[in-house]
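[Automated response] Your request has been received and processed.

Submitted sequence:
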Amino acid sequence: MTDHDTEHGRAGHGQRGGRLAVPGLAALMVLLLATGWLLSGHLVSGAPALAVAAGRTAASFVVITAVAAVLPRTWAGVRTATARPGAVAVLAFLGFFAYYSGTLLGTSRIGASRVGLIVSLLPCLTFLIGIAAFREPSTRRKLLGTLLAVAAACGYAVADGRAGGDTVGTGALLTGGLMALGGTFTYALYGYVYRQRMADVPPLAALPAITGAGTVMLGAATLLFVPLGSVDAADWAGIGVLGAVLTAPVFVISHELILRKGPLFTSAVALVVPFLVRLGEWALGTAGPPGPLVVALIAVCAAGVWLTVGGRAAPPRPVPAPQRPGDQDAETRDAGEQDAETTAPRQGNRS
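Generated structure:
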């Protein structure tokens, strides 16, 4: 595959589906994520966190692989992804083993609201990683939006922190917080690595290999450290629903958004999820109603997300117009002919 083909494939992700595709995908992803967090919090309260992480990833793997198997258009991409075992292993570790282990183990130690706060730092981590390691372009608007949204998330946790109820010891707070922060960091890094290593593969074709490797990693850890007899049939059923109905679609949608709009956009949109979870807990009767300050902070967070992901898109790089046979471009005329073959430039090699 040439560089021109790769750039054309990336541009196709941004153009496919029209203007409503990205907002629709983002809204659906947020709804599924919030529902998944509510169910995860319920399951982790009665089942080991590693078992929940392994089970949801395994169920997602089964669903995604089954869908990819019945769509012939994905088969070539599946073969391409499985031919990159190094990239698959790195992505599985960052996006599944480390992220789910860190966040779910952190939830079991310090509670969902504190972990939700830490996960809310994902756009900030994504923003910093993109600038420092991947030379991502930035603007003052993105910086202001990210800082505003993260500040609102921190203020939300302080204002609404009493809803969690339990008193957590210093040791548990430190270890649980570091686990959740480590998992959030690896997921921020995952978005960039995925776009760098799998940009030419449709998400539905790349995810069977990645989720399969993640299932193996989490399954091995579960077998080593979790007494499976402590998980009852009802918990396994809930884990299956979490993975097959909620997590699998989120995987496909979030990876599509990463390719269309980038990791920062995807993580910034997901920032509203902890607030929706808080409202969901109130609706389910597991927490009291949010106060006026919490509602105001939700609005400020939404404004920060809008600043981060909104604005005019950067203009695409100009593509040279096709030249008629025998024409010479300016560079050739300036440099002079090097040999007879360069008098008719080849089309498709410049992007």
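Summary generated for your ticket: The CA atoms of residues 79 and 205 lie 8 Å apart. Residues 1-15, 313-351 have pLDDT under 50 and may be disordered.
If you did not submit this request, please reply to this message.
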